[in-house]
Amino acid sequence: MDFINIPLFSAGALVFLSVLSGLVSARVGFSFLLVFLVGGMLAGEDGPGGLRFDDFVLSFWVANVSLAVILLDGGLRTAYPTFRTGLKPATGLATAGVVLSAGITGMAGMWLLDLQWPMALLLGAIVGSTDAAAVFSLLKSSGVSLNERVAATLEIESGMNDPMAVYLTLAMIAWVKASLGGEDLGLTGLLALMVQQFGWGAVVGLGGGFALSWLLPRLAARTELRAGPLALLLVSAGLAVFSASGWLGGSGFLAVYLFGLVVGNRSAALVRDALWAMDGYAWLSQAAMFLLLGLLVTPSQMLQTLWPALGVSVVLMVVARPVAVWLCLAPFRFRAREVWFVSWVGLRGAVPIVLAVFPVMAGVPGAALFFNVAFVVVLTSLLLQGTTIAYAARKLHVALPGKGEERLARAVYGDFVLDARMPVGEVCAFYGLPAPERGHEPLGRWLAQELGRPPVVGDMLVLGPAHLSVREMNGPDIRAVGLRFLQPLADSGD
């Protein structure tokens, strides 16, 4: 029985030690995901563990299943109301933003790694998207509360940009192989591939979501749906949707995210009890995926291109991602500090490493280079960006006060709490503020119109010597407004 016991003991001990290390390292700000990845490297052939592992097919299979479970969990937890503020900007980032990041990173690959243009664009496509596992996990564990616009934009973007990254990677692989064979790859074929990927992904994901959300209440009326079996039902259905979409030529990543989104909102009361079990499935998926991908890398080979790969990572973090975010968010009137934060939280995780396996399996010459560069990009992103989310949120003033943090709430919103139904003209007259036009309008409605975008808690507007801030929301409407003076009030006796 040693052929069962020894591998099982090794796997169990590796996961246990990685989780234990993650719990300790999280206290000093290191990501769980980074610990799993490094744990896999240490267990590999260049580390103390000495395990030789080079099964790209198994790694590819496990990683895809794990990403499907993680995206399903993210979709189940995304509420429709967040789409009010996050859908449009996130869609821009998940499409045009990925293309821009890939293009700029590709230029860095040409310069730093001496790649030809098709190969450089393939590298950009591989590392161009943010990672759902990293974003979902690190935003939850950062300990900061972000305003709805920023949080929704980041979460929806990370859930929706994988299909674009997969499409770009497949398209670039086809272009590279066609150029190596002296063929001309037509634009029509690339556009057809995009329509196929997104079309089937949307149809299968939405269709499966509506079908299961119709079934669940009827099933619950006839039998007791406990959290464990319900979570297993959701995971199995999600994996079926993921694989069915891929079998038809669509994007399984898009399909499973949309499936979770529909089921999580249309059957929210039933799904809520299963989210605890889903959290366990998602963590198990992250642990298995990152440990396996860590085992797959050979650090001694990665060191051969370490400095150029670090250069690519720096360009991606400080040039490509910020340029893409600023251009894509320009129409949506985000505050500058929000744009900088979204730019910084462009976390790379397992997805670039998984995408780097595509050219290896497709037989692209020199494909090992993509895998090594992607691994360096992921390590630097988790180490630098992943460990500084809370610091960046506080430094850029996008973190909101938590419950019970009254002193911080007063510092952010001010000492005065105003009813949003009061006429704005009366408020200005009482506090000596400049009288705006439409003074008869309720303060909340006037503030929302002046902001020029769907308001969220934390939005601020300068009016004369004061800050007016959105303090409480009731659905899409402002319920309470905070007032903070930017300078001390003048003495009434002067």
From TrEMBL:
Where is the protein situated, by its record's location annotation?
A: Cell membrane
A Pfam family annotated for this chain is CorC_HlyC
- Residue stretches spanning the membrane: 12-38, 58-80, 92-113, 119-139, 198-216, 283-300, 306-329, 341-362, 368-393
Q: Which InterPro entries match?
A: Cation/H_exchanger_TM, FAD-bd_PCMH-like_sf, FAD-bd_PCMH_sub2, Na+/solute_symporter_sf, Transptr-assoc_dom
Membrane topology type, per the record? Multi-pass membrane protein
- What Gene3D superfamilies does the record point to? 1.20.1530.20, 3.30.465.10
Q: Origin, by domain of life? A: Bacteria
The UniProt keyword set, sorted, is: Antiport, Cell membrane, Ion transport, Membrane, Transmembrane, Transmembrane helix, Transport
Is Cell membrane set as a keyword in this record? yes
Listed SMART domains: CorC_HlyC
**Which residue ranges does the record assign to the Transporter-associated domain?**
409-487
NCBIfam families per UniProt: PRK05326.1-2 (NF003715), PRK05326.1-3 (NF003716)
Name this polypeptide is given: Potassium/proton antiporter
